[in-house]
């Protein structure tokens, strides 16, 4: 301490570090700490804090091995297995291993150069095996995401493709018909006829017809 006030210390820090200087509240708190006899700038141990907080290479490798063994492992299980905090586990997964959770599985978010090269090599090997024996390859081949690959029984030729396009085009043109409702009337019912009396008015005939229908 050089006997400076918190404002003076803040001004010197701003001159040296510019926008990266700590806030005035931080400077004020540190001044109070040193006035009360503190001599170290390191954080004091806190109750309940885990002893292992740093993402060391050993911890990163351990997390990576666990994830590769079980892609569906939960962050809580990684915390219990490694003894580090939940925030450190998330930081390792997202920042160090560059992984994200997709469909409940941890997968690499971006492919590295090695990953891309390995994919090309494996794809070429699979293509060579398929060309040697297509039936055996399709029977034995299983993807890593638990998906079976089966050959399609339908041969896609020109006629099939043209028919498919025709169906899709018809559905697209008649899409408005799907919104309309159709009302069916019964046409086999008994038809009643009422003859009009000569020299009678429409009102009188209608009233007589209504009375007759009500009596039936």
TrEMBL record:
Alphabetized InterPro entries for the sequence: RNaseH_sf (IPR036397), Transposase-MT_Hybrid (IPR052709)
Keywords: Methyltransferase, Transferase
GO biological process annotation, one example: methylation
Record bears the keyword Transmembrane helix: no
Keyword Nucleotide-binding applies: no
Gene Ontology MF terms in the entry: methyltransferase activity; nucleic acid binding
Cleaved signal peptide residues: none
PANTHER family: MARINER MOS1 TRANSPOSASE-LIKE PROTEIN
Protein name (Swiss-Prot/TrEMBL): SETMR methyltransferase
Species of the source: Acromyrmex heyeri
Gene designation per UniProt: Setmar_170
């Amino acid at each position: 301490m050089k006997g400076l006030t918190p404002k003076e210390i803040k001004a010197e820090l701003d001159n040296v570090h510019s926008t990266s200087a700590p806030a005035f509240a931080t400077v004020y708190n540190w001044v109070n700490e040193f006035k009360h006899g503190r001599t170290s700038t390191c954080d004091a141990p806190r109750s309940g804090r885990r002893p292992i907080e740093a993402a060391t290479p050993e911890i990163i490798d351990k997390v990576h091995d666990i994830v590769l063994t079980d892609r569906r492992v939960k962050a809580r299980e990684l915390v219990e297995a490694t003894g580090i905090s939940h925030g450190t586990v998330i930081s390792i997964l997202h920042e160090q291993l560059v992984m994200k959770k997709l469909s409940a599985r941890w997968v690499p978010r971006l492919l590295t150069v090695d990953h891309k090269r390995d994919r090309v090599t494996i794809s070429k090997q699979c293509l060579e095996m398929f060309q040697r024996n297509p039936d055996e390859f399709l029977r034995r081949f299983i993807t890593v995401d638990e998906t079976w690959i089966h050959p399609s029984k339908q041969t896609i030729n020109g006629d099939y493709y043209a028919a498919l396009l025709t169906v899709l085009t018809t559905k697209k043109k008649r899409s408005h018909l799907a919104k309309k409702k159709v009302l069916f009337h019964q046409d086999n019912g008994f038809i009643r006829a009422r003859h009009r009396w000569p020299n009678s008015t429409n009102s009188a005939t209608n009233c007589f017809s209504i009375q007759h229908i009500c009596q039936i």
